[in-house]
Amino acid sequence: MKAKIIVMPKKTVLDPQGKTVQHALESLGFKGIQEVRIGKFIEVELKAGNQAALKKKLDEACTKLLSNPVIEDYEIALQ
Amino acid sequence: MKFGILQFPGSNCDQDAYHVLANVFDQPTRYVWHKDSTLGDVDCVVVPGGFSYGDYLRTGAIARFSPAMKAVAAHAQAGGLVIGICNGFQILCEAQLLPGALIRNKGLKFICEHVDLRVETVDSPFTNRCQKGQVLRIPIAHGEGCYFAEPALIKQLQDEDRILVRYVNNPNGSVDNIAGICNEGRNVFGLMPHPERASEAALGSEDGRLIFESILQSVVAA
Question: Which residues of chain A neighbour B58 with C-beta distances below 8 Å?
C-alpha cells in the first residue's frame, strides 16, 4: 500500500519560489497563468492494513513531522 | 555561568559559540551531543547555527526530535535560559518552544552580510545590557530566515513585548521586520543574526557581545 502526501504552503504564506516560476513561465510565453505555488510530494510505502487506522497514523505523521501546521497544509491519498 | 552548546550532525556554528563563551568571556562551556538525553549542569543552553540534518524536509524539523531537545524543553520549562541562533532559532520554532516559523527568504537568495538590528526591548535576559532603540551591527547568514506568523500571533508578540530585535532594513521578508523573539516566560530567545560572529573587534563588530553580556548580567541579577 502506498500513501501519497502533498504538502503545500498555506495561502497566507509567501511562496517566492512559486512566484519566480510563474514569472519564468510567463517569460516563456505561457499565457493565462493566475498563480503558481510550489510544495512537496512525499510517497510512503506501507504494510497494508485498515484504511481508517492507517489514515489516522498518517495524519499524526503529517502534523508531527511531514508538515509544519504553522505554514503548511497537507493532503493524504492512500492507494 | 555554565553554558551548554548543542551539537547536531550539520551544526557549524557550535565552535564559534564555544570560542566566544569559553575564550572571550571565560565562562565554563561544554558541548552537548544531540543524542544526550541530559544537559548536565548548565545554566544557559545555546542551540547553534548550521544545517542540522542537512535541513532535510524543513529547517530544524528533524533536529527537534533529538533526545537533547527533549532535555532543552525541560530546561526551558523549568525557567532555564535558552538562546537559539539562526538554525537554532529554526529548531526552537519547530520544537514549539517559540511560536511561528522561518521560511525561505523573500528574495530566494542565501544572504550573508552584516545587518543593523534595533533592540526593541531591554526587558529580557538577552537584551538587558542594551538600550531600547540601540542599533546593533551583527551578521546574518541564512537562506530561510523569513519569520512568519499569522497576524493574531504577531499582535500578541507586539502586545507582550516579545519582539526583542527587529531588522532596520528587512533583508528577508520577515513579517513585521522580526529578527528575534522570546517565549512567554522570556527565558527562551531565538534570533536569525549571529551575535557570536560579532563579539571580537577583529571580526568587524563587537555588538554581539551585548547579547552575551546581558545573559551573564541576568544570572548575576537572579
Answer: 68
